[in-house]
Specification:
four-stranded antiparallel β-sheet, about 325 residues, globular, alpha+beta
């Protein structure tokens, strides 16, 4: 296997509310957020130094990153999230670097606005009613759903938790909807654009009850109630050059890449209430967390934030004339 960075994930049959992998679940940019092996990390790792000082509505951001080793228990993860959040670093996600037989597992954090963050790690809810109740109860207190994680030694299922994050400086007020899964591009886009027209941001497909029920999860932030989202699907391409061309064509029209999707192709989203544009770069994958952090911080200083990693390479995006979620570093699998 070639040296690369992958977003750490394992298939966890018992996980009741889990983000679906792009190859197997409804919706765009999806990914199983269950990280086999600990998530979080203790001490150490690369450090991006200072942090972004622009407010959430600013048109230009700079991006700073840190990495930490993964934690293997819930208490350590909670402690690490709290420590990084207090310093203004928001959890991006678990990643692995290198190649067989030696992988380096790390967690990545980003700072892109002047804020601090608090986290909650809650029991995963099995049924649709309980899951939606938890999502909306946390959202009303300003806690945004990050995803479900499996926390334990590498290769084990470990303890499953639903992770929520709160911006302590500019808290949101989040409300969620779970809708029936779709099974083709046209029906997905009809649903997503219908919800987006009401200000609901598409997160991902989710599996409830261990996969017995498949739904699609949407979120709105009532503190940004004027946002309206429009989704577009474009056929997937295989080469780096073709992907770069597609990304920048869509970005020039105001669309941010949401990710690959089994039913929609490459999914893009724009906020129709603003005139943002996006410029993309695709970089060679880094083989260590330290190398990734150093390179990401170099690009972040010129306004390029990390978006995700695909087989074509690491994708970075520079937003312009942008406000809100579309400008910030989001979850690499779901872009939430």
């Amino acid at each position: 296997m070639s040296s690369t960075k992958r977003w750490a994930s394992t298939v966890i049959a018992a996980l009741t509310l889990s983000l679906l992998a792009a190859c197997g679940g409804g919706g765009g940019g999806g990914g199983d957020d269950s990280a086999g092996g600990g998530n979080g990390g203790g001490g150490g790792g690369g450090d991006g130094g200072g942090g972004g000082t622009n407010p959430p509505g600013s048109t230009t951001l700079t991006y700073f990153y840190r990495s930490t080793p993964m934690a293997t228990d819930v208490d350590t993860l909670a402690s690490n999230l709290a420590a990084q959040g207090a310093e203004g670093y928001r959890y991006v996600g678990p990643a692995s670097f290198g190649s067989v037989p030696s992988f380096e597992f790390a967690n990545l954090y980003a700072k892109d606005v002047a804020a601090t963050y608090a986290y909650r790690l809650l029991d995963v809810q099995a049924g649709e009613t309980d899951a939606l109740a938890q999502l909306n109860a946390q959202g009303a207190e300003g806690y945004k759903y990050y995803g479900d994680l499996a926390i334990g030694p590498i290769g084990s299922i470990g303890a499953q938790r639903s992770v929520y994050v709160r911006d302590q400086t500019n808290p949101g007020n989040f409300e969620y909807r779970l809708l029936d899964a779709t099974n083709d591009r046209s029906s997905f886009l009809a649903q997503a654009n219908g919800q987006g027209g009401q200000g609901y941001w598409y997160i991902s497909g989710v599996a409830l009850g261990g996969g017995a029920s498949i739904k699609q999860l949407y979120m709105t932030d009532k503190t940004h109630a004027d946002a309206r989202y429009e989704y577009r699907a474009v056929d997937a391409v295989s080469s780096r050059n073709d992907l770069s061309t597609q990304l920048n064509e869509q970005g020039g029209q105001g669309y941010r890449f949401k990710g690959p999707d089994f039913q929609a192709g490459n999914l893009y989203v724009r906020d129709t209430t603003q005139n943002a544009t996006f410029t993309y770069q695709i970089e060679d994958p880094k083989t260590s967390a330290g190398d990734f952090v150093n390179h990401a911080n170099e690009l972040g200083g010129s306004g390029f934030g990390f978006l995700t990693t695909l087989v074509q390479g690491e994708i970075f995006v520079r937003p312009e004339n942008c406000s809100g979620y579309l400008c910030t570093v989001l979850h690499p699998l779901t872009q939430n």
